[in-house]
Amino acid sequence: MKFVEKKWLVVTVVMLICYLISIDAWATDAKKTIVFNDRSWDSIQVHNRIAGFILEHGYGYRVDYMFADSMASLTGLGKGDIDVLMEMWVQTNIAGYKKLTESGKMVDLGPNFTNAPSGWYIPTYMVKGDPKRGIKPVAPDLKTVEDLPRYWELFKDPESPNKGRFYNNPSSWALTYEINETKIHTYGLDQYYNVFDSGSEMALVTSMVSAYENGKPWLGYFWEPTWVMGTLDMTMIGEPAYDPKRWVKKDYGCAWAADNVVICVNSKLVETNPDVVSFLKRYETSVPLTSSILAYMKDSGGKPEDAATWFLREYPDAWHKWVPDNTIKRIEDAL
Q1: Cα separations in angstroms, 133 against 31, 121, 128, 215
Q2: Helix or strand (DSSP H, E) at 282
Q3: Where is the signal peptide, in residue numbers (predicted)?
């Protein structure tokens, strides 16, 4: 009897070990960690965590997030140090995009979201006023860039009050920073406005929100989707219609094109991890959906990973379409 009990004990232990080995093998079968490119704005960090959670808990991959802004991220993607870029703003990064795709180092997997606007904004109350807050319109005729010279004193730069201040994005976003600087020069606004380096997205947002809450003027560059643009009533300053020739010429004397924001991967990933690529090809959201996720993160005081799990709980119909049926339960069990 004791022999039989020992025999079954040994069998049970062996089966348990085999089970644990199989679980570990499933979790490490990826053979590599999938590295996402983190940048300094919220939406890409949230999309990284959504995709990362799915790959980790649904597919058994380990994931990592490497911070690199602007051209450094494209260099890393081209070399293979970074595997996935969840937000390639094509129009904004057209030169780098073409270079990497044409060289075969990067593959465009299709849109994350489309028609994402960006441009120069002011608070709407500057033009229309806000009777509820007792704010009168101080620039009722400010509609286009051509009107900015006559209103520069409303935007006085506290560090150089002989000119107005234009809040640019952080200089670490080298390309967009330089485009806005060039636009200021092309429009002849450099004699009226200083270009201010915000230093970080957080500082740029803070400057806007602070001005808005105090009913003060503000002029600067911004984009969508973001929680702040979904919360504040802002108006985009008109520019001449988008003209691709002006962008080729690089004087940028026209509006930004509404951007198609696509998902790109290092080309080697297509061969080494086709399941990851298949998932990312199906991953697609929208500007309104992304804004709602970011608004939740702001309102709840959460982090990008909290916003990611909230999205996965609240929008199953969206992400179920991205993954095979056999991964859904694993992902939902991990939430």
Answers
A1: 59, 20, 12, 8
A2: helix 274-282
A3: none
Residue 26 has pLDDT above 50, yes or no: no
Domains and CATH numbers, the chain: 31-115+261-334 (3.40.190.10), 118-249 (3.40.190.100)
Query: Is the CB of residue 28 less than 8 Å from the CB of residue 60?
Result: yes
Return the structure tokens found at 2.
């004791």
* Beta-carbon-side half-sphere exposure of residue 274 (alpha carbons within 13 Å): 1
What type of residue sits at position 68? A
Contact 175, 70 (CB under 8 A): yes
Could you tell me how many helices (H) and strands (E) the chain has, helices first? 15, 11
The pLDDT of 76-85, averaged and rounded, is 96
10 confidence band (pLDDT: 50, 70, 90)? very low
Contact between 40 and 172 under an 8 Å Cβ cutoff? The reply is: yes
Q: Rounded distance, CA 112 to CA 97, Å?
A: 15
Q: Which of 33, 52, 73, 80 is nearest to 268 (CA)?
A: 80
- pLDDT digits 0-9 by tens, 98-151: 999 999 999 999 999 999 999 999 999 999 999 999 999 999 999 999 999 999
pTM: 0.76
Residue 276 has pLDDT above 90, yes or no: yes
CA gap 301, 295 in Å, rounded: 10
CA distance readout (Å), 234 to 37, 251, 256? 30, 26, 17
Residue 213: strand, helix, or coil: helix
CB 104 within 8 A of CB 74: no
Surface-to-core class of residue 315, CB atoms within 10 Å of its CB (0-12 exposed, 13-18 middle, 19+ buried) = middle
The pLDDT of 296-303, averaged and rounded, is 93
